[in-house]
Design brief:
The strands form two sheets. Strands 6-7-8-3-9-10 form a six-stranded mixed beta sheet, sandwiched between helices. Strands 2-1-4-5 form a four-stranded antiparallel beta sheet, with helices on one face. It is of the alpha/beta class. The chain is built from ten helices and ten strands.
Length: 241
């Protein structure tokens, strides 16, 4: 991927936190159209906070986020979704007392193209066939892996230009983790741009075109997925080698 192109997402010197605690200290990263970019790091490094700032859930204290060439400063979270920047949150956060179908339709709440919504619903069912089988089942009765598929499907129903995924493998059985990573590869093959935060650093970097390593709120390494996989510091800290 050439860095000469204007990135779809540009994050520059991002500073943010909660109350008196500063979590991010000048984070900068870029995601180009069609890429998978992985953001890895230990617990408490600031990965989820980074995504929450980008999606407008956590306010910026300093820095800038630009999406599709436009600043997201003072753009509310729901309007960011409507622009095509969508987050699959850590912990899935589906609506447990709504059915699978109702959850998916909630993902399309900003849209009014009925035919397009129905077409996208069928695409989600093709990606995750189990959701079609469970369409009338309450979301809260699904397994953890099925709920993660539902969270991804709900996000896809908003027809994102860039999908941010926060720890999609956390707390999920290995067989379903494999299905979710296969789905991520399928989405990239369709042209979807993805920013992936993932505890499984090896799997994340194998999927990634490029990656960043975040430690205590700062980017300390960046490179292609292959470069980071072969980096001795990454191997020692995150790959158990």
């Amino acid at each position: 991927m050439s860095d000469s192109r204007v990135p779809l997402l540009s994050v520059q010197t991002l500073t943010a936190g909660y109350g008196s605690i500063e979590v991010l200290h000048g984070v900068s990263l870029e995601v180009h159209e069609g890429e998978i970019v992985s953001l890895i790091g230990g617990n408490g490094a600031g990965k989820s906070t980074s995504l929450s700032c980008i999606s407008g859930v956590v306010p910026l204290r300093a820095g800038e986020v630009r999406f599709a060439g436009e600043s997201l400063a003072r753009v509310p979270a729901h309007a960011i979704v409507k622009r095509g920047l969508v987050q699959v949150p850590e912990g899935r956060k589906i609506f447990p007392r709504m059915t699978v179908l109702e959850n998916l339709r909630m993902g399309a709440y900003t849209r009014n193209d009925r035919a397009g919504v129905e077409s996208d619903l069928e695409e989600v069912y093709a990606l995750f066939e189990i959701l079609k089988d469970r369409s009338g089942q309450l979301g809260g009765t699904l397994s953890g892996g099925e709920q993660q598929m539902l969270a991804i499907g709900r996000a896809l129903m908003s027809r994102p230009k860039l999908l941010m995924m926060d720890e999609p493998s956390m707390g999920i059985a290995p067989l379903l983790v494999a299905k979710i990573f296969h789905a991520v590869k399928s989405l990239r093959a369709r042209g979807l741009t993805i920013l992936l935060v993932e505890q499984n650093a090896r799997a994340a970097l194998k999927l990634a075109d490029r990656g960043y390593v975040l430690e205590t709120g700062r980017i300390v390494l960046a490179g292609t997925g292959a470069e980071l996989l072969s980096d001795r510091r990454v191997q020692a800290a995150y790959l158990g080698e």
